[in-house]
Structures are given as C-alpha cells and as structure tokens.
Amino acid sequence: MQIITFGNELLRQKAEKIDKIDSEIKALSLEMLQILERDKGIGVAGPQIGFMKRIFVIYVQGDEPRVFINPSILETSLKNVKFEEGCLSVPGIYTNIMRPETIKIQAWNERGRAFTLEASGLLARVILHEYDHLEGVLFIDHLPENKKKKLIEKYEKSINRD
C-alpha cells in the first residue's frame, strides 16, 4: 500500500461509514499500522491509502497503537494551541497549526467494540488531524489562504525537483 499524496482528488473526498467490522477491516487496520512503521508516521487514515471509508490508525510514542472506526468528535476544548504538523500525504511540508487542546471522541476498534476517549496534547492533535482526512480536509486547510498558497508552491517545487 502506498500513501496518496497532495493533488490526488481522493484526499478531498469525504469518507463513507464502515457498515461491518469484520476480518477484512481488522486486517486492513493491521496493514495501516505497518504503514506507520514503514513510513515513520504517527497516523494514517483510509483516504490516504485510497480506502474511502471512515477508519484511521494512530501510534503516538508512549501510547498504544489505536484504531478508530466510524469516529465522532463529541467535544473539543475552547482553548486552542499551536503546534507544528506534517503529513504523510504532503511530504516535506511542516507548519504550525492551531487546534483544540483537548478532545473527546467516540469510535469503534478493530474488534467492533465501541469506546470513548478523552485526549489532550499530541494525542488529541493526531486524532483531529486524521479525523480531518475522513472529512476531505488537509492540515494546510487550517492556514490563512496566503500562507497555504506559499506552502503549496514550496511543496510543488520540491516534487518537481525529484
């Protein structure tokens, strides 16, 4: 499985609900976790691998690997914090993004069990970043238009050099 990169229209489409959590979804979640290890990422969502369903996996160092299927954001804090983000689908581009400091999310794991998680700091940020992918939103979309345009130009120059 390869990561789809910026410019591919799949990254701008909203992912669909997973109707059945079965052995195929469980196997896919394991493959997605292997992609994180291979590509040295901390999160990857279905649309980033061309699977247009509502699933993402994360692995933040110091925490356990987690699978989120059909997630719903229940709450976000009013306090926002700025932190540098990057994305496997926009390689080589990093910038500070404002996001809520804490969140509460509900989802199902790869065994079909529902869970609710309250997260803060990096864990909350990674969850929100991956959730955005399910909505067809990229991290650069949180930037003012002029800064977003400059980063896109920088990215396009970098891929045209290769």
Can you tell me about this structure?
The chain is an alpha+beta fold and 162 residues long. It has a single domain (9-161), classed as Peptide Deformylase, CATH 3.90.45. Helices cover 30% and strands 27% of the residues. The protein has 3 helices and 7 strands; from the N terminus they run H-E-E-E-E-E-E-E-H-H. It has helices at residues 23-39, 121-134, 145-161; strands at 43-45, 55-58, 66-76, 80-85, 95-100, 102-108, 114-120. A 5-stranded antiparallel sheet has the order 1-2-3-6-7. Strands 4-5 form a two-stranded antiparallel ribbon. A hairpin with a 7-residue loop joins strand 2 and strand 3. It is globular. The mean pLDDT is 95.
State the helix count.
3
Number of strands: 7
SSE succession = HEEEEEEEHH
In the CATH scheme, the class would be: Alpha Beta
- The Cα radius of gyration reads 15 Å
Strand order of the largest sheet: 1-2-3-6-7
The helicity comes to 25-40%
List keywords for this structure.
Peptide Deformylase; 3 helices; two-stranded antiparallel sheet; 5-stranded antiparallel beta sheet; 7 strands; 162 residues
Topology:
Elements: H1 23-39, E1 43-45, E2 55-58, E3 66-76, E4 80-85, E5 95-100, E6 102-108, E7 114-120, H2 121-134, H3 145-161
Antiparallel strand pairs: 1-2, 2-3, 3-6, 4-5, 6-7
Provide a compact summary of the structure:
With 162 residues, the chain is α+β, with helices and mostly antiparallel strands.
